[in-house]
Design goal:
Largest sheet: 12 strands, antiparallel
CATH class of the largest domain: Alpha Beta
CATH superfamily of the largest domain: Hotdog Thioesterase
Structural class: alpha+beta
Radius of gyration: 19 Å
Number of helices: 6
Helix content: 10-25%
Order of helices and strands: EHHEEEEEHHEHEEEEEH
Shape: globular
Length: 310
Amino acid sequence: MSQQTNVFKEIHRDSVQTWESDQMGHLNVQFYMEKAQSGLSSLFAEMGLGPRALRAAGQRLEVQDHHVRFLREQRPGAPFYLVGGVLSAEPDLFVVYEEMRATLDDTPAATFRAEVRLVDDATGTPTAFPQAVIDASAKLRGELPAHGKPRGLTLEAPRAPMTLAQADARGLVPTYQGEVLQRMCDGKGFMNKRHYMGLVSDSIPNLLVKTRGDDRSQSGNIGGAALEYRFVYFKRPRCGDILKLRSGLKQVTEKTYTWSHLMFDGESGEMIAASEAVAIALDLVARKAIPVPTEMRKHLSSLVIDGIGV
């Protein structure tokens, strides 16, 4: 993207706050998503479809597919900014790109590719983007840079959603259950995109106990870090809904493991979202990735579930 700076626009500028950091001492993944969502609003405002225009038309932007890469960890106090542009623009779908960069040296810290639809605010029914918005996107066109392309994951068409009962039958383990709280929702009562990622992130300690017997609260030197995520959103929960998360191991290599996290409506059993993440073990003292220990890798390999993921 650094070669496309003439067409991509600054859409967000901020710094990492201490309360946004997790046990690993770096910006938690859910806040990357929050920054990207803020940038998305500014990006579409550049094309004449900002928040006021959306409210007037009774419409909203709805991301249906996210691919995220984390390139460099962001520690408390780090200043950063986001730039964004349009990869493709059709009446029924925009594919956009956002990139988080360090303010100090402009190095990429994270990338976000999002497939975005325009939907009716009341019904959620997709509607066509105005031609004027499609035309305005030409000034922001660019190509997906190499460092924003999938590496450990793919962007193939998602699998058909399964039910909660099917996930339990496949052996995915329960890692989160809770109510969608008002603080997790936007002004219309829908859960913000940040919290899809946030609930997955919050579930990891339970996942590690169930699959590896690890309790992160008892280990001060070894942690983990996500390298890459993909989320596909099927439904949007509302304030008061009950969510249940089921997680399982999709793949293990010498250096990484790929987890699958499936989110369900706790009452109906319908799938809300499917995600998968490539992660590494992290030495918190040296701030370096470490290989998956041989015995751990053997144990994790025995837990792999075929045919899960996005």
